[in-house]
Amino acid sequence: MRGATISKAADYLFLAFAIAPFVYYLLVLHSSFRFFRSSKDHSSRKLDFAPPVSNLKPVRGLDPEAYENYASFCRQDYPNYELIFCVGDRDDPAVPALEKLKADFPERRIRVLFGSGRSAINDKVAKLVRMVNEAENEFLVISDSDVRVRPDYLRTVVAPLCDPKVGCVTCFYVSIHDETFAQHLQSIGMYSDFYPGILVARQLDGIKFTLGPTVVTTRLHLAGFGGYEALENKPADDLLVGRLIAQQGLKVELLPYVVQTVPDYDSPRALFSKRLRWMTVMRHMRPWGHVGLAFTQGLPWCLAIVLTHSRAIGLAYVAAYLVFRVAMTWLIGVWGLQQKGLWKWMPLIVVWDATAFVIWLLSFGRSRIRWRNVDYRIQEGMLVPAAPSPAQSPPQ
Q1: Among 277, 299, 288, 293, which Cα is nearest to 355's?
Q2: CB burial class (10 A; 0-12, 13-18, 19+) of residue 380?
Q3: How far is CA 357 from the centre of its chain?
């Protein structure tokens, strides 16, 4: 009798744990709805706040459609800004595209720097150190080389800094020209998994990180934590910039604005490797938060319920899982970020959830990441080459 009681209590406890993802999904819906509803008022921002800006772009290699990406930054409706690119050397494949850019937009102030002049594990950050030091202006917009933007980009992302309480600005990004299965899978993962986590974090504790495609801040705020020099040997520099600025008592603002990125991978294997590298870094950056992801993943819990409980209970869990996941993806991807044609890719949500769960499991016990055929260890939050090798760029 006592054994039956214990078994029943254990069963109830298991069912309670299995409900945890649905509590998280409700929080996602609440957080996302509040964020995008309030963002409708962003049109009233002071877009006339337009201080001189330095747009910094670390470059390594030639991204797909690189020239079109660079050119979009030359077509900004903004009165006073400069563009600074930094490449490793004059043999970098991106140099011809940058030279063409300067020839095609002579009215723009475009500078191309060669080499960081520093010795650092994180070559991207070393380049940013030099660009910050050589930038003419106090206000800085830092963006990746695979980003493409609309003409209102600079006005929109700089505007929040008119509030002295705001120390940093970041925004969403979406992939364009998705053609392969892997590219569509990645996009679904962003709308259904990555952005929900960001919006919940914002609701519960505020934004304390930035997203790499757009980081907007000032020299003063960077100097407040020692500048990019303090990040030269660390992974996830974009996340750390937001965290370290937030620790100064300043607000990091997430805008509902969307920039575009051009995917640089086309196979499931490349996507899997990229995601595993990112998850491994996140596990070392936020170990307890990484463990807590177990209670945000509805698919494995549903499968466990189906295998251990009655058909009625199993079907109820599966139905609830599918409804919540589709609702979250629609709310963020379609209503919030206004991405068209997303409905036909909704079945990939289940594929993504299964893939993400496997990657999450594999990330435990890993302390190495591989980037451009070079192995690195993550040791006490620092990047350490796993073996002597020529200077390579770690994850950006």
Answers
A1: 299
A2: exposed
A3: 19
Of 44-58, 304-318, 326-340, minimum mean pLDDT range: 44-58
Q: What is the pLDDT of residues 71-109, one digit of tens each?
A: 999 999 999 999 999 999 999 999 999 999 999 999 999
Amino acid at 370: R
| Sheet with strand 139-142: strands edge to edge | 109-114, 81-87, 53-58, 139-142, 215-218, 166-175, 251-261, 147-148
Question: What global pTM score does this model have?
Answer: 0.90
pLDDT at position 371 is 64
Domains defined for the chain, CATH in brackets: 44-266 (3.90.550.10)
- Please enumerate, as own/partner, the contacts of 338-346 that have beta carbons within 8 Å and a separation of 24 or more: 338/258, 339/174, 339/191, 342/191, 345/184, 345/187, 345/188, 346/188
In this structure, the strands spanning 368-371 and 251-261 are unpaired
Nearest to 258 by CA among 174, 354, 163: 174
**Residue in the structure block whose two tokens are 């309670």:** 16
Concatenating the DSSP letter of every residue in 234-274 gives: -S-HHHHHHHHHHTTTPEEEEEEEEEEE-----SHHHHHHH
